[in-house]
Amino acid sequence: MSTDKLTHFDSEGKAIMVEVGEKSATRRIAVARGEVRMKEETLRRILDRSVEKGDVFAVARIAGIMAAKKTPEIIPLCHPLALTSAAVEFHPFPGEGRVEVEATVKVTGTTGVEMEALCAVSAAALTIYDMCKAVDKGMVIGEIRLLEKHGGKSGTYLRQE
Question: Which residues carry out catalysis?
């Protein structure tokens, strides 16, 4: 569902934080996904846990969860939310040199958690890059997108892939 009017600007065109205090709290869920492409050898080292900096997926998972919690500190017009859940999962594809990063964020509140899910995926992917850049500077982070969201006035969104 799209809206005809952007709500993040006032009548003079200045950026504002949208008033959500009048909205009813509802259960909201967002799922985002991205990927990191790398050399086959880099993925093998991640899966073998032989990267010198440590367990890449364990550290990237914590980075993603922390990013979801800190989203309003890095995205200026996002509201601070009392998240009820943030989960980050990794789906490696040996033979393709690719890892999918997926985040699911939940809250009962007056605004959605799409940005929190997208920030979680971004931070987890960046952490994979940081932990492996000594052996593979050519890694590519991409395809970060919202897969689905539920709740709120606009209801459910499911990406068609």
Answer: 130
